[in-house]
Amino acid sequence: MNNPLINPGLGTFVWMLVSFGVLVFILGKWGWPMLLKSLKKREQAIADSLNAAEKAREEMKQLVAHNEDLLKEAKAERDEMLRNARLTSEKIVEDARLKATEEADRIVESARENINYEKLKAMHELKNQIASLSIDIAEKLMKSELSDRQKADSLIQRELENAHLN
Q1: pLDDT tens digits in sequence order for the chain, 166 residues long
Q2: What residue ranges do the domains of the chain occupy?
Q3: 8 in Cβ contact with 16 (< 8 Å)
Q4: For a designed S-S bond to 152, which of 59, 83, 142, 146 qualifies (C-beta 3.0 to 4.6 A apart)?
């Protein structure tokens, strides 16, 4: 077991120690500061990324909340528009019903007036016909009564006695 890798000699050990010391010195002087500087930069970049991600998450929460508010407002506005449309349609239907009722009442009243007018017209014509017939009958009666001179004189005398002159 005399392997120089497993049991190094004293000279090898010293040179290894000196090489290791030089390596540590070089790395300590130039390597470690650069490595630590790079690690600090990377740590800062990761922290900044985490902060940006947190900010983005908060902004997303705010946007979601804002979108929900906008959605609620839109739904409320839609409901208001539907309610207004329903009220407007009910008002239009009610106005049309009132106009139709008024028109029907006007037509019925006009028909009543026409019926009364026609009734009065018919009564007037009937009275005229009765008066005409009465005159014709009276004329015929008078002709037959007054055909005799003596009867005519007695009729005139009797009517003059019955008439009261003012």
Answers
A1: 577 667 777 888 898 899 999 999 998 898 888 988 999 999 999 999 999 999 999 999 999 999 999 999 999 999 999 999 999 999 999 999 999 999 999 999 999 999 999 999 999 999 989 888 888 888 877 777 777 777 777 877 887 787 765 4
A2: 36-158
A3: yes
A4: 146
